[in-house]
Amino acid sequence: MKDSGGGTRQSYQRSEEDARGNGTSLEGPFPQYYKKACHVMQPFKRLLRKRAVLAFIDGFIVFLALLFLMVDRNLTPLTRTISYLQGQGHLLVQIAELPEHAEAEMHTIPEWTLYGDGTLLFQNGPRDDLWRAHLSPDAIQHVLDVIINHDQFFTSSAQRYGSRSNDDMELLIVDANNQQKAVTLAGEPTTSGANDIQTTHVFAIEQFLLTYHPSHAVWYAPDFDPDDNHDA
Predict the structure, then answer these.
(1) Mapping DSSP to helix (H, G, I), strand (E, B) and coil, where does residue 110 land?
(2) Are 63 and 99 in a shared domain?
(3) Global pTM?
(4) In terms of Cα–Cα distance, which of 146, 147, 144, 128 is closest to 136?
(5) What is the CA radius of gyration of the chain?
(6) What is the CATH number of the domain that holds 182?
(7) Which residue in 115, 79, 124 sits closest to 94, CA to CA?
(8) Which is nearest to 121 in space by CA: 132, 129, 110?
(9) Does 9 map to a domain?
(10) What is the mean pLDDT of residues 68-85?
(11) Strand pairing partners for 120?
(12) Do 32 and 145 lie in a common domain?
């Protein structure tokens, strides 16, 4: 039994040495298959690493773009401040009703008036009493931004917009950003001619102002003498 077992071990050892000499293995083909698979996967691994790097770069660029937009948005109010005279009694914006007949005495009836010190006088409706509020510098900037930047009041070229009728005429006056301009609004906006966009803008300004009524406004008892100046 001992001689038989010893012969078996020696035979296995010789077979293993012969297998190694022939470049094979008694453990089967799995190690060689694993090596070949790893070799085949190398290009895919490099491709995945390349895609990961590109994805990181794209994400970083998007992050920088968002950061730039946030910083630009915060700086915009500082770089686009609209200048205006802040003196007491200096008229910045006004919508006033004009007399219906040309031969009538030229006395306007203020409907919405903003002064440089932030004083706002307005009517809640036609022929209503005047109400008074005080606007902060930020609120004034918002009003002027809508008029000058959004609706581009100073780019309007006509002196009158709307219908040809002399009914329901209003005078819109703006004095800010080192510019002063007054236009007449008559009746309802018309959409014919070369001034379609300008007409839309000036009437949009009118609607914006006539509906701008701060909630903290209080009733104001004005001096109804049209020749009297504003007493803020």
Answers:
(1) strand
(2) no
(3) 0.60
(4) 144
(5) 41
(6) 3.30.1560.10
(7) 115
(8) 132
(9) no
(10) 70
(11) 114, 133
(12) no
Token pair in block for residue 125 = 């409706």
Give me the domain span that covers residue 140. Answer: 91-219
Number of domains in the chain: 2
Q: Is the pLDDT of residue 44 over 90?
A: no
Same domain, 70 and 99: no
Structure tokens, 38: 């790893």
Q: 189 is written with which tokens?
A: 């906006």
Residue type, 176: A
Distance CA 156, CA 151 (A): 10
Residue 93 DSSP class: E
Integer distance in angstroms from the first to the last C-alpha of the chain? 126
Residue 73 to residue 209: CA distance in whole angstroms? 26
Backbone angles phi, psi at 174, to 5 degrees: -135, 130
In a domain, 21, yes or no: no
* Tokens at 89, concatenated: 């009694």
Work out the number of other CB atoms within 10 angstroms of the CB of residue 95. 21
Q: Residues 150, 72: one domain? A: no
Task: Check residue 73 and give its pLDDT.
Answer: 59
Asked whether residue 181 is domain-assigned, the answer is yes
